[in-house]
Write a structure and sequence with these properties.
- With about 325 residues, the chain is mainly alpha-helical.
- The protein has 17 helices and no strands.
- Helices cover about 70% and strands about 0% of the residues.
- α2 runs antiparallel to α3, α13 runs antiparallel to α15 and α15 runs antiparallel to α16.
- The longest helix has 24 residues.
- The protein is elongated.
- The termini are far apart.
- About 30% of the residues are buried.
Length: about 325
């Protein structure tokens, strides 16, 4: 198989492929807009396409979900390259613009945390006695790392190999690499800090960066790994990436479409430390999910368990009465 075919295979088995298998959230267009933005951005860098295409796709992606706004620094870099080519005198000014944009993006989360009216729907940065689950708490960092492994299982070992190749060959990333690294880096940062209070149920947003991370890994392998002495090394590494990603993602998709997901959901909700589930009892949340899935008996069992633990919670009593 060619390197391009194997690269496509790596992308087909990223964790976010779960969006396309009956996922309840309407997130399926996000990977499409992200891949189209990356492709048209590459064509813009190669002077084979207009900058208007990645601009339009970025705006459409942000309209679908604010997480796509993490691509703005990469879009600013595209503008910088275009300005540098047409107006060499603006080279320094455009570099400062990129630096200011990245700094504003990195600091946005902390600025929001200082505004009391906007602090409520966001996780706090650091844990305290009242809310132990925070952005930089051990539990949240562990969930975030787990989501990155689920989202791009083969990309991280490949990125380590690319880093070793960079150190050995002393090669700096070109414009294509910088564009992909900016996109992946800001998405990783956004998935860590711009996270809401649903805990592990926000895996869909945490895993979203896996697409760009996989693009960086595949591009790095294609550009940096291999030589005349080892012409097939790129294909071997990418074939391993396809197989490893398939072994990770395929069972995940399968479990979410069988009754085994019920057991997973039960452990997921009852052990989740996110403050959302401290406000809403897990029996209430799981019972409502069962109700939406028309699993009435299981929903009533959850509500009965919730009434024994929270006898004064009117929400559990109301939802149980609706089913009776």
């Amino acid at each position: 198989l060619s390197v391009r075919a194997l690269a496509v295979g790596c992308l087909l088995f990223v964790g976010t492929i779960q969006y396309f298998f009956g996922y309840i959230e309407v997130y399926a267009p996000m990977p499409v807009f992200l891949l189209a933005f990356s492709w048209t951005g590459w064509r813009s860098l190669a002077r084979e396409g207009s900058l208007w295409w990645p601009t339009l796709l970025l705006l459409c992606g942000v309209f679908m979900h604010v997480m796509m706004a993490a691509c703005i620094p990469a879009w600013i870099y595209l503008c910088h390259v275009q300005l540098q080519a047409k107006y060499p005198r603006l080279r320094c000014a455009s570099r400062y613009l990129i630096a200011l944009t990245i700094a504003a993006f990195l600091g946005a989360r902390y600025a929001l945390g200082l505004i009391a009216s906007l602090h409520v729907p966001w996780l706090p940065l650091f844990s305290d006695a009242e809310q132990p689950y925070a952005v930089f708490s051990t539990m949240h960092l562990w969930e975030w790392v787990n989501a990155q492994v689920l989202g791009a299982p083969a990309a991280w070992p490949l990125l380590i190999l690319c880093g070793l190749a960079i150190c050995k060959k002393r090669r700096r990333p070109n414009t294509y690499g910088i564009f992909l690294i900016l996109s992946a880096g800001t998405q990783l940062y956004g998935s860590l800090t711009l996270n809401f209070m649903l805990g592990s149920r926000d895996w869909d947003l945490k895993c979203f960066a896996g697409i760009s991370v996989t693009l960086v890994a595949v591009y790095g392998v294609a550009r940096l790994v291999g030589s005349e002495n080892y012409p097939g090394l790129r294909r071997y590494l990418l074939a391993w990436g396809v197989a490893f990603s398939a072994l990770n993602t395929s069972p995940w998709v399968y479990i979410n479409h069988t009754d085994r997901s019920v057991e997973l959901l039960d452990r997921w909700l009852n052990d989740d430390p996110a403050p959302f589930y401290l406000t809403y009892p897990p029996e209430l949340v799981q019972g409502m999910l069962y109700t939406e899935a028309r699993l009435t008996n299981k929903a009533l069992a959850e509500f009965e368990q919730g009434m024994s633990r929270h006898p004064e919670d009117a929400r559990i009593l109301y939802n149980a009465a609706v089913l009776c």
